[in-house]
Amino acid sequence: MQQQLIKLKPILSFLGATILLFGFMVYVGKVLIPFIAALILAYILNPLVDKLEYKFKVRRKYSAMFLALLVLLIFVAIPMYLIPVLVGQFKVILTKLPQIIALINVNIINKLNLQLGTHLSLDLNSLKEMLITNQAEISNNLDLFSHIAQNSIILIEIIVYIILIPFALFYSIINWHNILKFFDELIPRSFTSAMHHLFRDVDVMLSSYLRGQLSVMLIMAAYYAIGLNIVDLPSGTAIGIITGLMVFIPYLGVLSGLIFALTIGLSQFTGSASLLAIVIVFAIGHVMEGGLVTPFLVGGRIGLNPVMIILALMVFGKVFGIVGVLLALPLSTIAVVLLRHAKEYYTNTHYYKDNS
């Protein structure tokens, strides 16, 4: 292959544009949340809209209206159902927390000592007293969601987000091809071919991840909700939905759901058989997700290992807040493609191949 010289102008231009974009995101902050969320949803749903338009002759605006209304209903229904259920369970846990601590201390720590021949002990009395002392205050804090209407600023912000995301989604879907055309026309003509090749690779990886991961989340949410209801866990549907929606965080999402489910199980004192059933549900779900659902729907083409995903969420969330969490995984997948192209470009340059 012909050797190439490194061209600084496009590299510096790209880096400058990236710095300006990141600076703008930091400055504007959460104002971008509904628009970024709408664009991500529009990107995920656009193939479906295109298929309905070209194959089934459904006009684009009707598909966009239906999907926007569906998203609006989901945004309204899920918080109205999940928040009261979870707050109620937290209150039950707080009420029975001293018994839960005693149960763990007797049935788990003592058994570990007998099995391992150790003399482990946890000073839970101070924690127990602190929690009992502050139980009323913690319970009152949990009433925040019930009395959120008292804070007009928070209420207005939530209502704006709930309405604005579907609204922006509707217009994003309708004008999706015009949006792509607008940005395509900004590309310098000398780089058009190379940038189109790069964007195709980004689209393959990004679509595989976003659309595949969304499918995984929905399937696992349904599995955990059904499984936890079968084992008669109180609020099993709510916990299952949340666990399924958190599976995009490797290990931590499932582990958080398991800990919360076991804590609720302990608060109900349903016995060791019920706790074992909860563990089995999560174990089967984790194996099914990692060994069947994710490989089939997402595939192995993403190139993001669990450590990279967790690191991306932490770094982008720290720097950009909620906006960073929304953009962490899409930008990480794009970064993987850019690094591959940069490496390929670098290994074909005169600088790399020169042996003199």
Describe the structure.
The two termini are 19 Å apart. The protein has a domain at 192-347. The radius of gyration is 25 Å and the shape is globular. It is an all-alpha fold and 356 residues long. The longest helix is centred in the middle third of the chain and has 39 residues, at 192-230. It is built from 15 helices and no strands. Residues 1-6 have low confidence and may be disordered.
Brief characterization of the structure:
With 356 residues, the chain is mainly alpha-helical. It contains 15 helices and no strands. It is 80% helix and 0% strand.
- Give start-end ranges of low-pLDDT stretches: 1-6
Structural class: mainly alpha
Number of contiguous helices:
15
Distance between the termini: 19 Å
Mean of all residue-level pLDDT scores = 80
* Radius of gyration, taken over Cα atoms and rounded to an integer in Å: 25 Å
How would you characterize the largest beta sheet? none
Level of helix content?
over 70%
What is the β-strand count?
0
Strand content: under 5%
Layout of helices and strands:
Blueprint: H1 8-28, H2 33-54, H3 60-95, H4 97-116, H5 125-133, H6 135-142, H7 152-174, H8 176-185, H9 192-230, H10 236-245, H11 252-268, H12 272-297, H13 306-320, H14 322-346, H15 350-353
Helix pairs in contact: 2-3, 2-7, 3-6, 3-7, 9-10, 9-12, 9-14, 10-11, 11-12, 13-14
